[in-house]
Amino acid sequence: METQGSTRLNSRKRRKEGVGPNGATETDGIPLKVPRNCLGLREPAPFSDELEVDYSKPYIRVTYEEALRGTPLDRPVRVYADGIFDLFHSGHARALMQAKSLFPNTYLIVGVCSDELTHNFKGFTVMNENERYDAVQHCRYVDEVVRNAPWTLSPEFLAEHRIDFVAHDDIPYSSAGSDDVYRHIKEAGMFAPTQRTEGISTSDIITRIVRDYDVYARRNLQRGYTAKELNVSFINEKKYHLQERVDKVKKRVKDVEEKSKEFVQKVEEKSIDLIQKWEEKSREFIGNFLEMFGPEGALKHMLKEGKGRMLQAISPKQSPSSSPTHERSPSPSFRWPFTARTPPSSPASLSRNKSTITYDISEDEED
User: Fold this and answer.
1) Stated pTM of the model
2) Half-sphere CA count of 170, side-chain side, radius 13 A
3) Contact (CB, 8 A) for 197 and 97
4) List of residues 6+ apart from 135 with CB closer than 8 A
5) Does 248 have pLDDT greater than 70?
6) Beta bridge partners of 77
């Protein structure tokens, strides 16, 4: 024990390279935990009547302080927790987890009451005793299962299973003519309290099923169960089938409504996009039109430039007054081919030039 204590003290002084849960390290005052029995993590927990117990060794209970400090590996703290465990749920698992985590080195024994005891003292169960045994066996926190556990714990039972502490919630459990079946355990200093998980219990689950009975009956009918297996009458069976068809029609109508809403929404989005694009294009078209045909548009400038060029081309160039005058050379005469007569002319020209038989065209006129 001294060697183990010194080793634990030295291990606390050494600092880990990494950190533990929530950033804690060994130097933060967290008690060193001994590796627990991991049998339940690899295979189902065994039944107590299938294990061999060496009764030659004396059974000496450990105190609560000794259990908290930690016990040797070959002497775990034996904690007992009992219950019905009908419809095994997370509340049961959390209670067993708390019982397993009470001490650094814990061996958890779980007692499960039989159908006969449960029906006499508490009421009818959904699962039979074998199903409840098997459910508890496969919980990872359980090391051993006691079948047909007693309703009230006797000293003989505690000694037979070498139990050090009994784990249960601290609320008084009145049953079997007693206001608290764990009173004698608490008075003996063997009680280790745990916390109940609020919002989940076997009674709550059964209440949900009873409250929504029609829903679950229709659900199982759809899954292939017969009305006889569900204890449903012929009329109720037809009613459930009719309700199922009505629900299918409602679902189809709802799907169509949702699809139509999506379609209308898509059309509205596309129409908005088209209107925005049309407005942009119309603005661009109007801008281009005004730029070309407006009061100060490009067309007006083009017409002004063309008019100026035409006037410049038509008007003759004036020669400077100081430049010498040159006599224009006579333009060559042009004669109409294939005829000796001149082209027709006005009567005034005929009277002036009766003797002329040629028609002259100057170079300027020809241009």
Assistant:
1) 0.58
2) 4
3) no
4) 85, 88, 127
5) yes
6) 106
